[in-house]
Amino acid sequence: MDLELAVDGYVAAWNEVDPVVRAELLAASVADDFEFAGPTGTFHGRDAVEGLIVALQSRLGGATVVRVGPVEAGGRFRWVIATAGGSRLLEGVDEVEAGPDGRLTRISVAATPSE
Prior knowledge:
The protein has helices spanning 3-15, 19-29, 46-59; strands at 30-38, 41-44, 64-72, 76-82, 88-98, 104-113. It is 33% helix and 43% strand. The protein is of the alpha+beta class. The N and C termini lie far apart (35 Å). The longest helix has 14 residues, at 46-59. Helix 1 packs antiparallel against helix 2. The radius of gyration is 13 Å and the shape is globular. It has a six-stranded mixed β-sheet with strand order 2-1-6-5-4-3. The chain has one domain (3-113): Nuclear Transport Factor 2, Chain: A, CATH 3.10.450. It has three helices and six strands.
């Protein structure tokens, strides 16, 4: 799998409300032993990340995660979380690592509040 496609699938999972489709997106884009390191801690496995996604969707109903631009050199991509009305809530840069099959094995988040 191409890194761009893996990141696209991962971001799409953050916006998917159907649990079956979300699980399929995560299975296709992240490895079984995926690790997510963010401001609230480090989480291991797809189920843990899916829990984070559900929590975000519950807390910020209608908000979406939008990838901004391509994956940059060094495996970094930029993103924004915006309200249904388009106001930016949070933005940041993720550093990604992928395994031999192209699926993501690790994401490290560096998020900053939007102005």
